[in-house]
């Protein structure tokens, strides 16, 4: 009875207002559905005070993919960083944001960049702006690059369909490969922090032999391009002339060593109340920052923290981390989840966490607690 009365009262109130209320009812908001987009990050000018360093060694980022509607705006991202005397990038930190820029390659690509040696700068800035394009109309070059990016993100079927439609050889029925040749990896050195790739396009003559091999896209590594062209020329397919066949070649990123740990930061707390081997009630779960792992970038972090009598770790602070603040945040998160064996508690503990690559991207890269 109470529910019926409440509904009836609402109807009376609406009737009393009359036609004016009906006219004031807003029109329904119609929004376009979110769609898959390809996001390219475009870097602005690098500014180091009054200096404008040569940007030819600035690494481009891998394209991202996300779902977004027409009203969604992806914000620009600005980083501060330093350039050492060797031209390496250090102290990379996103400005005006909490935590790392998730889901992008921005920080790692900046760390992998190289500037001219002998021109160190302590405070530099660069802003990246997103260029989001629906997958249905994204440039084929962006789809090709997305298809070879490292990591679990995969190009959706719609993207592959657009690529296939652009190259006659990939249309059904696809020619049957009899022999596919690949470059000798020993001839193509790894580039620290940068995966190199190239996409070779070639045609097939009536006998199925590869002809007219040429570079369709890639990172511009001449060594890889030359080796890929030589390999693709040896491909053999079932007979039948075709044009526009594609074969990608990828050389994984080589390890980019972490900057040297300063002597002033090497001191650590002795094992005991501050943790250490045999004194963890819950050991730190050591996890590598994923986007840096994909570029084989190493790093380290120096932390200080307190331990409560019941073993909880608190007041975890990053003293310094290199080459990026992301390594400090990752180490901080790991240490907060740990717990020391119960005791008297202590303050002012310190810990160094090193992030080292094992040499195989398929292996479990685990940071080391010094």
TrEMBL record:
Signal peptide interval: 1-21
Location(s), subcellular: Cell inner membrane
Membrane topology, as annotated: Single-pass membrane protein
Alphabetized UniProt keyword annotations: Cell inner membrane, Cell membrane, Membrane, Protein transport, Signal, Transmembrane, Transmembrane helix, Transport
Transport listed as a keyword: yes
InterPro entries noted in UniProt: TonB-dependent_transducer, TonB/TolA_C, TonB_C
Keyword 4Fe-4S on entry: no
A single GO BP: protein transport
Main location: membrane
TonB C-terminal domain residues: 273-364
Record GO cellular component, one term: plasma membrane
Domain of life per record: Bacteria
Similarity comment: family membership: Belongs to the TonB family.
Protein name, UniProt field: Transport protein TonB
Native species: Tsuneonella dongtanensis
